[in-house]
Amino acid sequence: MRIGVYVCHCGINIASVVDVAAVRDYAKTLPDVVLAKDYQYMCSDPGQEMVREDIGEHQLDRVVIAACSPRMHEATFRKVMEKGGINAYYFEEANIREQCSWVHSDREVATEKAKELVAAAVARVHLQESLQEKEASVIPAALIIGGGIAGLTAAKDMAEAGFKVTLLERKPYLGGHVAKWTDTFPNMAKASEFLTPLMELVKTHENVEVLTSGELVDLEGFVGNYQAKVSLSPRYVDETACTRCGKCLEVCPVEVPDEETWGLMERKAIVLPPPPHDPDTAFIDASSCRHFTEEGCNACVSACPEGAISLEAQSEERIIDTGVIIVATGYNLFDPARKPELNYEKLPTVITGPQLERLLDENGPTKGKLVLNGESPKRITFIHCVGSRDHTVGNLYCSRVCCMFTAKQAMMIKGRYPDMRIRVCYMDMRTFCRGCEEFYNAVQGMGIYYTRGMVSEIFPKEGKPVVRFEDTFLEEMMEEPSDWVVLAVGMEPPEGTESLQNLLKLSRSADGFFLEAHPKLRPVDTDTDGIFLAGCCQGPRDIADTVSSAHAAASRASIPLFAGKVAIAPIVAEVDTEVCAGCALCEQVCVYGALKLDEMSKKMTVNEAVCKGCGACSATCPSSAIKLRNFKNHQLLAQIDALCVKSAEISG
Amino acid sequence: MRLEPAMKDVLVIGAGIAGIQASLDMADAGFTVHLVEKEPTIGGHMAQTDKVFPTLDCSSCILTPKMVSVGQHPNIRLYTLSEVTKIDGRAGDFTVEILRHPRYVDESACTGCGACAEACVMKGRIKNAFDMGIGKRGAIYIAFPQAVPLKYAIDPETCLTLSRGKCKKGPPCKLACDADAINFEDTEKTLTVHVGAIVVATGYDPFDPRLKPEYGYGKYPEVLTALEVERLCSASGPTLGEIVVNGKKPSKVFFIHCVGSRDHTVDNLYCSRVCCMFTAKQAHLVKDKVPEAKVTVTYIDIRAFGKGYEEFYERVQSEGIIYRRGVISEVFKKGDKLYVRGEDTFLGETYEEEADMVVLAAGLVQRKGLEVIEALGVQKGDDRFFCGPSPLDPVETGIEGVYLAGCCAGPKDIPDTVVQASGAASRAMTILSREEAA
Lengths: 652, 438
Hints:
Low-confidence stretches of chain A: none
CATH topology of the largest domain in chain A: FAD/NAD(P)-binding domain
Shape of chain B: globular
Largest sheet of chain A: 5 strands, parallel
CATH architecture of the largest domain in chain B: 3-Layer(bba) Sandwich
Structural class of chain B: alpha/beta
Mean pLDDT of chain A: 94
Structural class of chain A: alpha/beta
CATH class of the largest domain in chain B: Alpha Beta
Strand order of the largest sheet of chain B: 5-2-1-13-26
Number of domains of chain A: 5
CATH superfamily of the largest domain in chain A: FAD/NAD(P)-binding domain
Shape of chain A: globular
Oligomer: heterodimer
Strand order of the largest sheet of chain A: 10-7-6-18-29
Number of helices of chain A: 18
Low-confidence stretches of chain B: none
CATH topology of the largest domain in chain B: FAD/NAD(P)-binding domain
Helix content of chain B: 10-25%
Largest sheet of chain B: 5 strands, parallel
């Protein structure tokens, strides 16, 4: 065996604490080490080139590089091995930066520790096995979960790039929250002017299939080859026959709070989604329909002149084969009832910003008039950060859109009702988006009172809400009698996040939103290969940033589809079938679902494409029948032994 | 309609993190990327950054693997010291002229050993722009040790051979170079590439605080810009990470937000979107390195809106850093002492306080010299950054085949830049994958 050892300075990152020359000289004394060098930056082009040349020139068959964490550059150096003509897995990286120079200051001790780490790496590299990467083919198709602006944008890009797209939406119609918005900040274009052409493009694109009233219920497979099981609920109304005449609504006896206005209005059990939702044909909400809840009611069926309604329809399940998945499940709005001091449930004219948005909509329930219970307001107070930046409700984060959403609504109202008295209570104005600071300046110029200060409560006085707040500039408690109070509610992860998290093996950040693979450089990737995040399911953002992230998710998801193949890492579990007793304890600890008991042989089998090489199975197996390649006991014990020997030398 | 296959090649202008990300996405998908960068190395402003918020990851530690990938990618043709001089055509079929400035060093021969820079008679005498002028270099140099490509370049303005025709008895750099890579006869070259789509990723310039003379930048050495502080904080920077201002450790540090942003007087009405957070990060780093220093941040509104940002802002406040709401009107000297004059809007009073380090959170402004892109028909907003027809889709320019990535389309932080860069790549790939040109 001929081992080459390289010690990296990492500029001064390592060299300022560790005596790299001493480590290099020590490495020369280790068994089978025929060459040891130190270099400024091993990861740089010349550093890599040096290793490649040495492999040929000195017939190296094993390499150890003492540098940073393998998380950083193990892949880089494995490529160098291949270029040099030896197996990429005849390599070991000793971490003398994160685990040595960055955490120690005593040069002498740190240098000794670096020597130990190098000795251990050399001991282990002796025993490394040569491994081969495998490739799997890729189904050139994408499943996109969520039919809001994010899912639609991603669907457009992937379809236009030539891939089959299945767009799965839980609701009976596409459009998401944006379909409920009126004018958009900062240039006050109608949301529908942006959304409608996009929905039209997506649903008529030859590469796209839209599945509404559908949910993901199971997922098998791995990047490039996923099988997604979706459950599709019936609409009970034939989409092609419904003319939106509304006769069914007239006869429906049910009245329940309307999701469209977050309960501000009521709806029937049979619903006509308002435009621009798509499709806008009627559907029946089975959870409130009396045919299903009390049985017997068929009023709508007989009222429909087209005979479009069938209450016999059944839900169905389908398997969708797909290479990649984009999660675009959006957000929920914070429920202000969780802040009882705001009296949202008790005072009928304390409403949320999104509810106000429906009242501002010319196609909405009041045709754009500000009317609640027959009364129009003269004084409106807006309150920022309801459910955001708030320890008391467990949401530390900023919801990113509420400042501008409020400013936009204030501007719309002031434009329509110039005499309206409008006060806005805020903490920090976060009008950071493009054109938004300019917008905020314009709003202030319209005679809207912006007051910096936290609201402590909303209390009733003669049936009207009064807002008590602190003006932090005047350092005084103030009371603002209002006709309406509008709560700028923040965003939270949507319902279903947890089940999706489990199905897709995703992680979530402390704020509850899905966690990206890297906060800076992999903001739409996840730790599950082939699954990507678009829009607010990763964290609150406005429409522009949502659209941007949806394009990004489409790009990242397209890469394996364009490439047509994915590499399968070889450091995975393997089963010694001679020893395996088929107890399946390992299956229980495998979070990736990579292990299955073969019913015939009663031995465990490993799906190598799904296995992440975490090692949980091998630690669990009572008979050591399942092992992780290149992390086998004898390899790890050799590494540990070497560490101990060196430590004994030092202390002895 | 011509039925020609759409070009499978793509042009990316600018090789900061936006251009790097867009290039890697498209190259990994199998398209050939022509990546044009005007500097001798790729990396852009992110390479100058010490640590990134809110994770406090070392910026170059996460960036350099990507830079190396660009340098080694079989599908990326990297043109450094180059600029795009002309673009003709339409989606699926653009003709692009690239001007390559001379490096005076043969890229294929240079091994990056650095013997030339050691020998250069100008060594340590020229302000290194990468270090914001705090560090010094010679006339032959690399901007920083992890430069990609790791090839030296000669700055013709300061090289004695190139500017005066003579350097000692024979240029010492040439004598020192074992690879015989130095070529003083190197000239400009023009080449033409054909591409199906274009991603514009030209980045930003920091606001020049000299335009706000009341802050005394350029007059008082204690007044620094944020980018200068990044270089001071960097362990591989010119001070090896020591905070040294005007020759000594500071004890009273003031950070001033919104310098050149949200400011009518300099015609920048917009918010620069990143300064609140990089200031919070720098305040943390300075406090960490000089714990005995009193660190004050003066602000108008704190805009900590990204994932984990509000939490980071709370952490910084808990570290004993003082946040005072209100603008600083002036930085001035009384005797040999430096003072800031400001208003505390909570206390409703003005104050004067001594400071020995003042950091200006200079905003982001559009670059100059983008005429080629404007000639394509790409529009600019009132803020002078590039824009498309709808603010709701920041990737689009309104010109099919031309897409925007990163800060050239308005200030944004690294994650939002990376997102938009991948987004621009996505749109470009819908053109590149077409069967025919539009």
